[in-house]
């Protein structure tokens, strides 16, 4: 390329006169044998020069850095990393220097905008790549594993609404159970042995005794919980005969936003109908909906509304990174991730009113099928064994931060600057 520092012009006259001009030095030739020697010397010199120039000019990482193992760098496949929890987890991994992250997501529910925020925060080569693929596509998943040498997998990708699972059970068994099976098969084929699995308190159903420990019997009462429990069983059965290090984390109700307001919770508008409570409260506070509908106030609880254990997303993803570091070969660790405290829906609404300073109106409706009265965790095992404890336990403060993110992003991630991913 003319003008390039690597461009060397050849002198045609010199070539015709059997001499090569290399960096201003002329080599006179006489006889076929010496011609050959000179050609070999020139070729070797040129090769050495090219290698030197390439070494000087190439970026610190080769283009295919994601396909290369690098000492001291742990490559994590984050499935569902465009979603609410997966994006926060990817961010926490990327904040630590020794992780490389590949996000695989089909964007069916997540946000490209969240990926774009992460790409902007971590633009350095070799930190983050995004692959738009469906985990139900076994061939695509296998190709991804064949190309990239992952050290571990954090499997977040899933459809995750209790009410929707009652209406569309097959979708849930397919997306959660069957896709986890495909993922495990790909991990087996490509010798990836570390898995952190996103499970849920919905696998316990409605136990008689609170709080829920990891030994509480799992009797899920909706397809979402059943599909997750089946996926857990598949993972446990597989890990029994194989050398795997697995952590199954059973989350309670996840709320909140990154305290620095870089990421938040932004379900697609069409999913709002299935509603998680914080999104519904914020929508009511913004006037996107006419107040709040509480589904059932005749449960056997303190004030008649459902009781849940609300865990902050930043605490939750911290538990993932700890689990990743503490996962042991040949073991399946199972941990509840919650605060250990139950709060009623009415208490949540009061906290939301305080955080948003909007007097949200409330209508009481019939119970929603598939809901359980009271669910809260005993987080003692994760506290004791992994040294993890929820830090963000003031609900109003958590909602104040999430509300700030919501006000900054009235259209979710829709207005994030478009960059190529
Ligand atoms: N949010 C909660 O309160 C909660 C509680 C317990 C467990 N969980 C679990 O945590 C995980 C993440 O939940 P979330 O709240 O971030 O949900 P989310 O909908 O925000 O994120 C899920 C992501 O998975 C992707 N996805 C879904 N199906 C896919 C497929 N077939 N191929 C590729 N990508 C696919 C979606 O596009 C989305 O980006 C889920 O496994 C969920 O069951 C969530």
TrEMBL record:
Claim: Protein transport is one of the keywords in the record: no
Keyword Isomerase among record annotations: yes
The entry's keywords: Carbohydrate metabolism, Isomerase, NAD
Organism field: Riccia fluitans
Cofactor(s), names only, from the UniProt record: NAD(+)
Tree of life domain: Eukaryota
SUPFAM superfamilies xref list: NAD(P)-binding Rossmann-fold domains (SSF51735)
InterPro entries (UniProt xref): NAD(P)-bd_dom (IPR016040), NAD(P)-bd_dom_sf (IPR036291), UDP_G4E (IPR005886)
GO terms of molecular function: isomerase activity
Name the UniProt record assigns to this protein: NAD(P)-binding domain-containing protein
Family: Belongs to the NAD(P)-dependent epimerase/dehydratase family.
NAD(P)-binding domain location: 77-394
């Amino acid at each position: 390329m003319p003008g390039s520092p690597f461009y060397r012009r050849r002198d045609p006259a010199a070539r015709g006169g059997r001499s090569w001009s290399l960096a201003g030095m002329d080599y006179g030739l006489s006889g076929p044998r010496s011609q050959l020697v000179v050609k070999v010397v020139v070729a070797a010199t040129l090769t050495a020069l090219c290698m030197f120039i390439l070494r000087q000019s190439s970026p610190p990482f080769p283009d295919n850095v994601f396909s290369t193992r690098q000492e001291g760098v742990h490559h994590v496949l984050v499935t569902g990393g465009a979603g609410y929890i997966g994006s926060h987890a990817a961010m926490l991994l990327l904040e630590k220097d020794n992780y490389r992250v590949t996000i695989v997501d089909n964007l069916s529910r997540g946000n490209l905008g969240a990926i774009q925020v992460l790409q902007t925060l971590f633009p350095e080569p070799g930190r983050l790549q995004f692959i738009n693929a469906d985990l139900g596509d076994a061939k695509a998943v296998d190709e991804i594993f064949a190309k990239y040498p992952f050290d571990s997998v954090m499997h977040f990708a899933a459809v995750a609404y209790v009410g929707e699972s009652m209406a569309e059970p097959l979708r849930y068994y397919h997306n959660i159970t069957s896709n986890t099976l495909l993922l495990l098969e790909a991990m087996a084929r490509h010798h990836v042995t570390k898995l952190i699995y996103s499970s849920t308190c919905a696998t316990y159903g409605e136990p008689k005794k609170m709080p829920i420990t990891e030994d509480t019997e799992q009797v899920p009462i909706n397809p979402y919980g059943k599909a997750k429990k089946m996926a857990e069983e598949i993972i446990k059965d597989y890990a029994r005969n194989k050398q795997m290090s697995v952590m199954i984390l059973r989350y309670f109700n996840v709320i909140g936003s990154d305290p620095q307001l870089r990421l938040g919770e932004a379900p697609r508008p069409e999913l709002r109908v299935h509603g998680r409570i914080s999104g519904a409260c914020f929508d009511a506070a913004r006037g996107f909906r006419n107040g709040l509908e509480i589904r059932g106030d005749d449960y056997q609880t303190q004030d008649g509304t459902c009781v849940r254990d609300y865990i902050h997303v930043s605490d939750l993803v911290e538990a993932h990174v700890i689990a990743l570091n503490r996962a042991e070969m040949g073991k399946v660790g199972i941990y509840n991730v919650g605060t250990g405290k139950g709060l009623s829906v009415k208490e949540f609404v009061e906290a939301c009113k305080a955080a948003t300073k909007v007097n949200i109106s409330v209508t009481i409706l019939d119970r929603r099928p598939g809901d359980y009265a009271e669910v809260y965790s005993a987080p003692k095992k994760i506290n004791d064994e992994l040294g993890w404890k929820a830090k963000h336990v003031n609900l109003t403060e958590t909602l104040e931060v999430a509300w700030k993110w919501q006000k900054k992003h009235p259209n979710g991630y829709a207005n994030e600057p478009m960059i190529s991913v």
